[in-house]
Amino acid sequence: MAAEDLPSEFDVVILGTGLAESVVAAAFSRVGQRVLHVDRRSYYAANWASFTFNGLLTWIQENQEGSHPEEAQDWSSLVEEGEELIRLSNSDSTSISNVQVFTYTSEEDEEEEEAPNTTEEETGGAEGDAVKEASETESADSKEEETEEKQEETAEGGGGGEEEQAPSTEGEEPEADQPAPSAAQSQSEPAKKKKISYTKLVKEGRRFNIDLVSKLMYSRGSLVDLLIKSNVSRYAEFKNVTRILTYRNGQVEQVPCSRADVFASRQLSVVEKRKLMRFLTSCVEETEEQRAYNGRPYLEFLRDQQLGDNLQHFLLHSIAMVTEDTPTEEGLASTRNFLRCLGRYGNTPFLFPVYGLGEIPQCFCRMCAVFGGIYCLRHSVTCLLVDKESNRCKAVIDSRGQRITCSHFVMEDSYVGVDRKKVDTPTRFLSRAVLITDSSVLPSDSDQQVSLVTVPPIAAGRPAVRMVELCSSSMTCMPGTYLVHLTCQSVGSAHEDLSPVVNSMFRTPESPDQETRPSVLWCLYFNMADSSGLEVQGHDLPSNVYVCSGPDAALGHDHAVKQAEFIFQKILPEEDFCPPAPNPEDIIYDGDNPSPTATEGEAEEGEGETKEEKEVQEQEEVQEEQSLHPEE
Amino acid sequence: MHGRVKIKSTAQQEEEKRKEREKKLKIYVAARDACFSKRKEGIFDDEALQLTQQLLSSNPDFATLWNYRREILMHLETVKDEDEVQKIYEAELSFLESCLKVNPKSYGSWHHRCWVSARLPRPDWARELSLCDRCLSLDDRNFHCWDYRRMVVKVSGVPVDQELSFTDRLIGSNFSNYSSWHYRSTLLPLLHPESPEPPSPRREPPQTSPPPSPQTHSHRVCEEQLLKEYELVQNAFFTDPNDQSAWFYYRWLLGRAEREEMISCVYVSRDEERVAVAFSRPVNAQSVGLLLVLDGQPQRVEWRSVHPRFKHSPVWICDLPPGTIGDITNEHNLTVHWTEKHTHRDCALYTGRAESWCRDSATDQELFRSELSVEKTSVLQSELQSCNQLLELEPLNKWCLLTIILLMRALDPLGYEKETLAHFQTLREVDSMRSAYYSDLCSKFMIENTILKMEYAEVRVFSISDKNLTTLCHLDQLLLVTHINLSSNQLQRLPPQFAMLQCLEVLEADDNIIESLEGVYHLPKLEELLLKNNSIL
Question: Model's pTM, two decimal places?
Fold first, then answer.
């Protein structure tokens, strides 16, 4: 960014480019407010971001290095009389923890016969991490750019040791703690399918768009409604989730949820088909019979419907996506929501944005920029200047020491100092795993399926895991691979929570006998704080400062969208929230077109837009890779 | 510094749009006039081609312009060489695609595409098929596209099995599509014909003669395939029992053998010197080549239908020349030939007998195959079981109820009579809009059952009182009946068809709501008529 100063006055300054913040930015800009939107990171979307493979490696590295708190500078010269200075937290050290990476594919192409590596790195989260592993180890050499070059073994916490001793077979890469080169072994078994090497993954890294949070868009959910209403949808493309799968009795099965699915299903008998369809049609409306089960588990209600085990499983775990003790009214509400979203865009209730979820916050930022919002990445706000008398934030000081006046200030929760946050409940965490695999968990006629896989708890007390498998046509992974996201509410660390599921559904060095399963080439585990319990206001902060929480555990985006709308309406109760944006040809740009005639005007409007966008781009330069896709 | 965004006001936008529209209209009208005058002058040049293209791309339903375009193209065919013609027509096809995007149901565009495809020197049928697939995936009931596709399939000789898997695909994505089910019913008899001997290997040379048209073939399907189809269609109606396409297809599968065309009965009466002939279906006896031979002598007789209103009728009568059979001491042999169908029926009138008849000993199998049958009883039985299973889950589903009734009739009409009546009662309640239809259908089945009972008892008395009859049918089966009791029903009329009861002597029809008696005026032997408590005006 050019070192020129920013304007010194804005209506709203927004810190952080997560989904809620970006929606807020678009909403304000759209109704004519002057918006400054900044993020201290070098990329958009904070914990909602999507990365290329290489981008993710950098992200991993950053999160393993830990934070380097910048020295607090003395801005007292900028403080005016009657003002008080509040320092914002200058590092996001708590939201990501327990980062562990495993590379299960050979580093180079297989002909080279090099001893393949299994690399694991692990970094404990910073203090305050509720699920910190007992046996944390530090990665040596963590400043090395190429993490895969490390040949370091760390003992796993949580009794994973035995599994790791499992001898590798069939030319599978040996465990890192058995570094004996297995040339003989690999020769004994002819390579069935040439595995994609790590080098190849890095080389094709730009084809990946790996989401930090894994969510789907309910096709009648609040995000889709907002995208349509605001015309922000024009900035993105979407794909249908093509099927819902579930993991049951060690098998991956397709869940019949639409009429066509039920008709085509081979695993249901005709009577089950009828019962399922009847249940789905009948539960749309609330009945006396249903009310009688209020407060009792949904499972009980389902049992009493005489549906049989198959249907009960599908309805509970895959359609309602609730647990066995969820109350009936909640289970039914969630079932209804699923059904309401069905058939709008396809055979499942879900959409996924092409190029990954990180696109969505960026689309809102773009809308904000088109309406005059100013963007700066790698740029932060360090202090708030508060008028003591009114307890309102009058101005902020940015990371370059500029005083910027504003009427309202919105920020991501991680910028709020721990001492000022009012937290009612202990912070919850999400456990996440990202796998790159070589085939689908349920191969079918088409190899381009986007699947949601519901995995019920594998044992009592274990979390239910949600898995999303993306194919290469979703533009999130390179051809020949699948990108698999696993998410659950943390019980232990991400690795503890998710690796049993990974090992039972995929072939890894720890589960080498799963020959028919997809092989994991590379995987990443980490925990992310779920701050969705945080209130927008009510912290030890000025009254015109609003806090946005990060991603929540839910599958949809309702929480962030509602939060954004809440903040907007709090500040501008009279204004419409994200009204439809006009068509580009109806926008008149000020400035360099003196006297437009009808036709000339049109042409220049076109130019006007490119100019506007150029400015956005300039601000974005640093993160070109994330936002500029070959198509654009 | 950024400028604030200004947005054109609605009035501004409206004004712009209005101007735009005016401009467009001006251009359109000018182009149209130019086209018309060019056509008048008989000019078939590239400019005309372009003008029509410009107009048709905004309004593809302008039939005159398509005609003009075809005239131009035909002219170009005469002056260009084949490669050029190929190019012109290829361009035409891609132009048509843009028209179809404007209106996917434009008669003009689809018709023109047919025409172009037929004239294209080197047609690319695979491409046409994929165009159809694309259109049908957007709207699987676009009948224009279905029509066009049928043409493409026929001309390009797509193998039947490939077409069958095409219907598999369409039904898989949406089974509420009768076009696909129906297409299936035309393909299956070709692919899996019902025949005792294994299907003979194709003797036809590989240079694909177009597939035999379904019409020339038997409509039946071999049993093995039928069982698979039952399974498929059951999946559909168990998934959505309210969808009628699956039920209609199911009815077709359960099938019905067409009754053999034949003379079902010949009746001769000595006193009246009259012959009555009943056919298995309504015919026009005056034109089917009906020949009456009496004692070896062909007779010149005039056939007339039982009621002057009928040109087609299952029962025809003729008077023999006076005196030919009047003498009760003579024995006569009659033969009625249906020359058109190469069939005939004999009837002997013995000495001392006043009348005589000859007909098949009727059984339920032959008389009424109701709507279904021909399949093995075991198959029907298991189908009935599945339907009953569905009825348990959906006790008020009309399609299921109706299908069960039909299956029961095919299996054992008398044995299931009680259940049938109960199901009809439910049907009238759950589908009250069609209660009259159900009453008529129920009447029909009750009459069939009564005829069966009468046949088993070998009597000429037909009694069906107090059965809520709303209509009369199968009257041709009652040619020989002498005594009929229809009292205490809900009949509104004795229709003209009633005249088929040529032997009727006693007619009891008390306690109905009869208004019209058209049928009773043509009954030659009627002696006693009871019509108390009716609504005769």
Answer: 0.77
